[in-house]
Structure formats: structure tokens, C-alpha cells
UniProtKB/TrEMBL annotation:
MF terms (GO), sorted A to Z: DNA binding; sigma factor activity
Segments forming domain RNA polymerase sigma factor 70 region 4 type: 103-155
Record family assignment: Belongs to the sigma-70 factor family. ECF subfamily.
NCBIfam families xrefs: PRK12547.1, sigma70-ECF
Coiled coil: none
Keywords carried by this UniProt record: DNA-binding, Sigma factor, Transcription, Transcription regulation
Name of this chain's protein: RNA polymerase sigma factor
Superkingdom of source: Bacteria
Organism: Microvirga makkahensis
């Protein structure tokens, strides 16, 4: 691609000012140089958009500024991890156990009496208040509270929960592996 000599000269003349502006934006000489280089490459690739007789330096500064803001938005979502320590510390729990736990919960729910299951699902899963659940079921609030309590206790029994804090969530082996990796 051939570029007009006057345009090339005006781009070269603007380069030191572009570099100074880029350094002031990035506070990093290497990143500033990369930004200036990318600016000049974009300007050359889109030189047909430049209006002869207008201010070349202003056009280049606009390109540089837009590139900087695009890069800033992109980098804001990234985590710098040159040595890999951050990535090495990341761990994910296996997803098989929650799936199996959910299957166990479904089976246990199916074994509950209908009125207890209905009350528990209205209050526990659907987020209705006891009063709203009582209205839906056409019974007293105390009846709903009793059904929910009995359903929770029966579920814990069916699923063999002794201590709710330890029985829900990752087991001790999974936790120890995750803490050893982190």
C-alpha cells in the first residue's frame, strides 16, 4: 500500500507527541510504544478516511485515545497472572456430587406425604410466606408451619443428615483437596 508522502511526513511529525500522550495515559513506556504503533497501523489502514486539509495530529490523537479506552475496557476484565500463581490457586468443586445430592433430594421429596411436600415446596422452594402458603392450601398458618417442620425433619431423616452444617456442601475429602491446592 502506498501512502502520500505529505501524509506520511505529517504522521511522522506527530509521532513524538503521540508517544508523549500515550505515556501519560498508560504510565508505561512499553505499553505506550505499542499503543502508538497500533495507532499508526490503524491510521495507515484507514488513511482513506482522513480528510486532506484537516489536522492529522488531531486525527491520530483520536485514534490513539479510542484504542486506549478499548484496551482499558478489555484489560479491566482481565487478571494479570504472568507467573501463573493466580491460576494455580483456582479450584472448582466437582459437579457430580451436587447432581447426585439433587437426585437424592428429589427421591426423598417423593417419599414425603403430599401435604408436607406441598407446604415445604411452597415455603422453602417457592419463597411464599407461611401466611401465603396457608391461603393457597386453604388451611391455618399453624398447620402450614407444622407441615413444613415435619417435612424438614423427615427429609433430614430420609437423607441421613445428622448435622446439617457438615452434611450440606462439599465433603471433608473435597474440602481438604481444595485447600491443599489453594
Amino acid at each position: 500500500m502506498s501512502i502520500d508522502i505529505d501524509l506520511r511526513d505529517s504522521m511522522l511529525k506527530a509521532t513524538p507527541n503521540l508517544r508523549a500522550f500515550a505515556i501519560s495515559l498508560t504510565n508505561n513506556v512499553d505499553r505506550a510504544d505499542d499503543l502508538v504503533q497500533e495507532t499508526l497501523m490503524r491510521a495507515i489502514a484507514n488513511i482513506e478516511r482522513f480528510q486532506p486539509g484537516t489536522n492529522m495530529q488531531a486525527w491520530l490523537f483520536t485514534i490513539l485515545r479510542n484504542l486506549f479506552h478499548s484496551e482499558y475496557r478489555k484489560r479491566r476484565r482481565e487478571v494479570e497472572d504472568a507467573d501463573g500463581k493466580y491460576a494455580a490457586a483456582l479450584s472448582v468443586q466437582p459437579d457430580q456430587l451436587p447432581h447426585l445430592d439433587f437426585e437424592d433430594l428429589q427421591k426423598a421429596l417423593a417419599r414425603l406425604p403430599h401435604d408436607q411436600r406441598e407446604a415445604l415446596l411452597l415455603v422453602g422452594a417457592s419463597g411464599f410466606s407461611y401466611e401465603q402458603a396457608a391461603e393457597i392450601c386453604g388451611c391455618a398458618v399453624g398447620t402450614i408451619k407444622s407441615r413444613v417442620n415435619r417435612a424438614r425433619n423427615r427429609l433430614a431423616e430420609l437423607m441421613h443428615f445428622d448435622d446439617m452444617d457438615e452434611d450440606i456442601g462439599p465433603d471433608r475429602v473435597t474440602l481438604s483437596v481444595m485447600h491443599a491446592v489453594a
